[in-house]
Amino acid sequence: MRRRILLLAxxxxxxxxxxxCASIQVSALPQPGKSYxxxxxxxxxxxxxxxxxxRAKVVLDGTTVGVVTGVEVQPRQVEVTARIDHDVAVPSNxxxxxxxxxxxxxxxxxxxxxxxxxxxxxxxxxxxxxxxxQTTSPPQLEDTIANMANFVASGSIxxxxxxxxxxxxxxxxxxTVRKLVSQVSADISDLSDNIDTVDLWxxxxxxxxxxxxxxxxxxQYWFSPEGMRSFDHGMSxxxxxxxxxxxxxxxxxxxxxxxxxxxxxxxxxxxxxxxKWAVEDEYPxxxxxxxxxxxxxxxxxxxxxxxxVGPDGRELSGNVADVLRILGAIP
Length: 331
What we know:
Elements: H1 2-22, E1 40-46, E2 57-60, E3 63-73, E4 78-84, E5 95-100, E6 107-112, E7 129-130, E8 135-136, H2 141-153, H3 156-170, H4 174-193, H5 195-214, H6 216-222, H7 225-244, H8 247-254, H9 258-299, H10 320-327
Parallel strand pairs: 1-7, 2-6, 5-8
Antiparallel strand pairs: 1-4, 2-3, 3-4, 5-6
């Protein structure tokens, strides 16, 4: 009887030990690293968290400040509970992003401070929540694989390869590149040698800009309502003049008869030009004739006798009476 009691007690103890071992989970085992048991919990709302592992690290400013302690699926979002170090203050306007350090690395929660908001925000206290509007979830793995398959199957890689081949074909050889670089170097040297011409051109451009700037009031008047009205009146006057002088069109269309007239006018102009030269040559002689000979005699009609010599060589100017008698001036 005692043996049966001991056997029954052994079976009960074994069952209790087995049931207690079955309730132990891997996540309940002690994890290496800091546990942040003295910290405080905050909640982060995400659209999805993919395969965010338990005890995932929480990083702020490049430093691990906490760990993920729980993930709970809600009807419209996923709530991630993170325990933060008690010495770290998380601002209420923080942004949370799920990131990976490497392609095959584990996902972790990165807390990013806003760069456009300069106002200081109050820190999140224990139980605080980062809303869904301030979090960014990674793309769905299925969407990523679908986009990658679409990229590979659509021929994009082949087109990129063809583009590279085309670029290699149009790229000149080494000697051509050397000639091109030499020509560019010569052009730049020539430009540096003639920089004064460029300065002169720039100065002219600056002067033109200054003139245009000084004429801004005139341009404003031209394009003002008064200036547009003046343009309209000018066009109206031109229209009336075109109607009043209809022969302008006939002269333009049948004006070949004017060619001989123009030739005659050209000949006459040439003759006048030659006559002008002749007049210029004769004018001094005529001027000397009138000023030196005619005009003095007309103003003073007299004859001054300074000497009279007879046939025998005698000077007769001394006897004035005889001279006048000879001339018939006196009886």
